[in-house]
């Protein structure tokens, strides 16, 4: 029983680390690098609060899902 409780505790700690997500600026840089590598130009990436993407496409989520990264052309 003690081993089971220890395993559950470790899994919950690991889950918390995964739920924290990446910092927004780090993820934004990774997305920009992928777009640049594909030859995409004339775009902007903006970090906004979750659900505030009024005029763009959500291309990523960061900081535990509390923020979105929005892609806009032009």
TrEMBL record:
Record protein name field: DUF1161 domain-containing protein
Tell me what organism the protein belongs to.
Answer: Pseudomonas atacamensis
State the UniProt keywords alphabetically.
Answer: Signal
Task: Output the superkingdom of the source species.
Answer: Bacteria
- Please give the Pfam families that the UniProt record associates with this protein: DUF1161
Residues annotated as signal peptide: 1-19
């Amino acid at each position: 029983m003690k081993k089971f409780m220890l395993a559950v505790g470790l899994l919950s700690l690991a889950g918390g680390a995964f739920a924290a997500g990446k910092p927004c600026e780090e993820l934004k840089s990774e997305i920009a690098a992928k777009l640049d590598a594909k030859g995409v130009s004339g775009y902007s990436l903006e970090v906004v609060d979750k659900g505030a993407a009024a005029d763009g496409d959500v291309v990523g989520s960061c900081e535990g899902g509390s923020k979105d990264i929005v892609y806009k052309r032009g």
